[in-house]
Amino acid sequence: MGDATLYWTKVAAIGQVAGAIATFLAVVIALVQSRAERSLRVRVRARLGLIVDGRGQTEVMTYEVENTGLRPVVVNGMHWATGFINVLGILPPPLRLKSAFQMPDYEWPINENFPWRLGPGESKSTHIRRQDFIDEFCQPNEHDLFRRFFWQRRPKLFWHRAGVAINTRRGIVFGRVDRNLTSALEEAYLG
Fold this sequence. Notes:
2 domains
């Protein structure tokens, strides 16, 4: 076998290996993209707001849900949570998950009843009058979401987050709570 034949055999082998690697990477990228397109993506946000209409202004707590994925979703309800899920059973009680289900104000005509059907790119929100929400959320009882650590004077909302129940998914999809809302709740809590 001559030097030229050996050289071109090596070049062909390198080309075959490079082609195999490129094919493998193309398949992996296609699978990742197809899985990302099929996944549920929902953005949840709770914040303080203001509704202005012909009768004046109303201070509200607004709960927004946006479908950022490509699949339609059905939202069944709103949730609040603080703390961590105790999967291994080793977390001390002050760090454990506490959660609550939120009932929207259906008597207010601007709020749509659950379930919400959201297509790709759609969003919906519900509003609760701010003072009514704060008064109900901040009622001290043994099952409220506030907790006190030994180094704090007042109870706090530890890792406070908002979530929604999705029809086709087990568990809750959590989102963010604006810092202003958390601060307003902690200031109003008397426990």
